[in-house]
Amino acid sequence: MVVTMFEPVMISPSILSADFMNMGRDVAAIEGAGADWVHVDVMDGHFVPNLTMGVPLVKQLKKATSMPLDVHLMISNPLRQIPWFADAGADIVTFHFEAVSGDEAFQAIETIHGLGAKAGVAIKPGTPASAVADLVPLVEMVLVMSVEPGFSGQSYIEGSEDKVAEVVQAARACGVAPTIQVDGGIGMGTLSRVVEKGADCLVCGNAVFAADSPASALSEIKELSSRVRDMALQGPEAL
Ligand code: DX5
Ligand code: ZN
Q1: Which residues contact 216 (CB under 8 A, 6 or more apart)?
Q2: From its phi and psi, is residue 124 left (phi > 0), alpha (psi between -120 and 50) or beta?
């Protein structure tokens, strides 16, 4: 008999694709539809070419929702600004491996933890999983970018799922199980590729907010991703 263990996949909709003039409405819609986290894409116009949102919005979101705030920092010098975001109410603070050098990654993780938040480390498409092997046992989340960071609505980069598998392997080798988040071009057509390889948190921007009904789109993504994960856990014959 196959024992089925239901393992929901978490969905963290990216509000970069929301309607900025109706942010409260859009956040309430995803909360009502069962979003697990809210993904907040912070860009500084330097680490990436785009400029987006910052501390004031994180503070407002903290008051407006009880969903955990998943803050993705696409900024240079993250060490300087991590305390601002943690103090503003970020529950998960993710910095980019490519934005730090020397022992700054360790300092960043220590700072995030010291401020009571969960730490995530993100890698761009060109960065191998092996680059963060030392950090995997220290963080609560590893974010695998499946597009070049900077803009929502891009197409999923084929092969990103292999990096998800490598991160899962690296985590298993250390006996840890951080959340494996995938960000970029994820929707109904691409999610199974990464979920089958072990992704357990999906960031979805356009797939949710560009839909006619973000709430229905989110429910469909949540349902399909958890079904794919459940089948993957039962073994290849179930897929
Ligand atoms: C890209 C951002 C993503 C983006 C995702 O740099 O980190 O979170 O908003 O948007 P979609 O899902 O539309 O690719
Ligand atoms: Zn993001």
Answers
A1: 33
A2: beta
Ligand number nearest CA of 48 is 1
Q: How far is the CA of 14 from the centre of ligand 1 (A)?
A: 6
Ligand 1 contact, 147 CB (< 6 A): yes
pTM equals 0.96
Ligand 1 pocket residue status of 154, Cβ below 6 Å? yes
For residue 177, which phi and psi values (nearest 5 degrees)? -140, 70
Q: Is any ligand 1 atom within 6 A of the Cβ of residue 187? A: no
Between CA 35 and CA 28 the distance in angstroms is: 10
Catalytic residue status for 41: yes
**Other CB atoms closer than 10 Å to residue 183's CB: what's the count?**
27
Mutate to test the pocket of ligand 1, among 52, 203, 225 (most ligand atoms within 8 A of CB): 203
Strand pairing report for 201-204 and 118-123: unpaired
pLDDT tens digit at each of 239 positions of the chain:
444 456 799 999 999 999 999 999 999 999 999 999 999 999 999 999 999 999 999 999 999 999 999 999 999 999 999 999 999 999 999 999 999 999 999 999 999 999 999 999 999 999 999 999 999 999 999 999 999 999 999 999 999 999 999 999 999 999 999 999 999 999 999 999 999 999 999 999 999 999 999 999 999 999 999 999 999 988 766 55
231 CA distance to ligand 1 middle (Å): 27
Query: Does 185 sit in the ligand 1 pocket, CB within 6 Å?
Result: yes
